[in-house]
Amino acid sequence: MDTLTAPRATDVGGLGGLADTPSRPAPAGRGAPSWPAISAWGGGLVQLALGAGAIMTEGGGPAIRVVGILLVLIGAGALGWGAASLARGRIVVPRLSIAGSLAGIIAATAAMVLDPIRVSVFAVAAGIALLIAVALGSALTLRRQARPAKRDAGARHLVGLIVAAVLVAGVATPALAATEAGRHAVPHGEMVEPGHH
Q1: Beta bridge partner(s), residue 12
Q2: pLDDT tens column, 144-161
Q3: Bridge partners of residue 18, in order along the sequence
Q4: What is the value of pTM for the model shown?
Q5: Taking the CA of residue 64 as centre, how many other CA atoms within 13 Å lie in the half-sphere pointing to its CB?
Q6: Which 3 state secondary structure label does DSSP give 12?
Q7: Tell me, what's the pLDDT at 18?
Q8: What is the pLDDT of residue 35?
Q9: Is the pLDDT of residue 108 over 90?
Q10: Which among 73, 75, 68 is positioned nearest to 46, based on CA atoms?
Q11: Are 164 and 38 in contact (CB under 8 A)?
């Protein structure tokens, strides 16, 4: 065994194991920031709502329905990507997530251009902002891959996760309410009687 690359007995990590070396990945949940994954959830939900509104809208042409289907697929992909990134503790397929974010931005913009009356500018802007956050996080991950990884403190990771969740919820909730699907939802505080929709 090469003494230059072998871990020393004194290199003990915070979890009781050997400290991370450049050849060893960071422990799950500690290697990458969680805000891109949380942003993907918010952006994915907005994309799904925009897509559902575009597909279900009466009087819409085939072009808006095709864009709606694309938005639903991109939104579902964003939710899955966010879940996979959080589960693995790192940004997965960062190049593909950048491409998916760009596709979502183009599709949301196309929906607004094709049906400016029913597609909310605020929902599109919020969805685009969240997808830009995903693309930025993925780009930073690509940049970090060229350098040795540093350990993040567990408490700092948890605080970052909470802050990201609060910010994304603050952006995504009003954006969802502004979509066509959100406008047809039951108003808050009202109950739907059985058999009535």
Answers
A1: 18
A2: 887 765 655 555 556 666
A3: 12
A4: 0.68
A5: 20
A6: strand
A7: 38
A8: 86
A9: yes
A10: 75
A11: yes
| Residue (of 145, 122, 125) closest to 133 by Cα position | 125
What would the pLDDT profile of 66-104 be if each residue is shown by its tens digit?
Answer: 999 999 999 999 999 999 998 998 899 999 999 999 999
Tokens at residue 36, please? 């891109």
Query: Whose CA is closest to 69, among 91, 86, 52?
Result: 52
Higher pLDDT, 162 or 51: 51
For the purposes of burial, counting CB atoms within 10 Å of the CB of 32, is it exposed (0-12), middle (13-18) or buried (19 or more)? buried
Average pLDDT rounded to a whole number, residues 10-20:
41
The continuous run of DSSP H or E covering 5 comes out as none
Buried residues in 153-162 as b, exposed as e (16+ CB within 10 A): eeeebeeebe
The answer to whether 157 touches 92, Cβ cutoff 8 Å, is: no
For residue 42, the SS3 value is: helix
Paired tokens of 34:
């969680």
> Nearest-CA neighbor of 154 among 14, 7, 46?
14
Element holding 15 (H helix, E strand)? none
Tell me how far apart the alpha carbons of residues 38 and 3 are, in angstroms, rounded to a whole number.
Answer: 41
Model pLDDT, residue 188: 55
DSSP per residue, 66-129: HHHHHHHHHHHHHHHHHHHHHHHTS--SHHHHHHHHHHHHHHHHHHHHH-TTTS-HHHHHHHHH
**Coil, strand or helix: which one is 162?**
helix
Query: Which residue type, as a one-letter code, is found at position 103?
Result: A
